[in-house]
């Protein structure tokens, strides 16, 4: 990717007034010059999601996060994956690396939904991409979408 100096150079280019911060208007202007139109609301949302000190502006580290694609939105995705892993572990039987018809039936019963093993097999078959009869974590993610 880019070196720190390259990030700094791009940051200085976007920091038109030289105050060491990139405002939403400066970012909008910079993005417009590089890739085309972007709305004021989109820029406000981007700055809001990356502004680490709450001043409504992007510092150099915030800007590097933008270029690298990191921010509160990414943190939200990481949190969702963590939640999905926790839910997956609840559905999978202890010692199992996947959700079996038996473990799915057990969990659904705990949630007050009574299903037969055959019904659970059909549910699993629908999302069992590799056909092994067990839902892996990746297959579980597909199912939850």
UniProtKB/TrEMBL annotation:
It comes from the Eukaryota. The keyword Membrane does not apply. Residues 2-37, 38-73, 79-114, 115-145 form the EF-hand domain. The keyword Cell inner membrane does not apply. SUPFAM superfamilies: EF-hand. Keywords: Calcium, Repeat. GO terms for molecular function: calcium ion binding. This is EF-hand domain-containing protein. It comes from Aquilegia coerulea (Rocky mountain columbine).
């Amino acid at each position: 990717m880019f070196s720190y100096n390259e990030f700094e150079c791009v940051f200085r280019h976007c920091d038109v007034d030289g105050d060491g911060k990139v405002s939403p208007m400066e970012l909008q202007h910079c993005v417009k010059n590089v890739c085309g139109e972007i709305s004021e609301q989109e820029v406000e949302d981007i700055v809001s999601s990356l502004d680490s000190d709450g001043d409504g502006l992007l510092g150099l580290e915030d800007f590097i996060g933008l270029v690298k694609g990191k921010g509160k939105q990414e943190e939200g995705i990481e949190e969702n994956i963590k939640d999905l892993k926790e839910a997956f572990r609840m559905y999978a039987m202890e010692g199992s690396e996947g959700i079996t018809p038996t473990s799915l039936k057990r969990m659904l019963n705990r949630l007050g939904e009574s299903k037969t093993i055959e019904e659970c097999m059909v549910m699993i078959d629908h999302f069992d991409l590799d056909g092994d009869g067990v839902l892996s974590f990746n297959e579980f993610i597909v199912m939850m979408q």
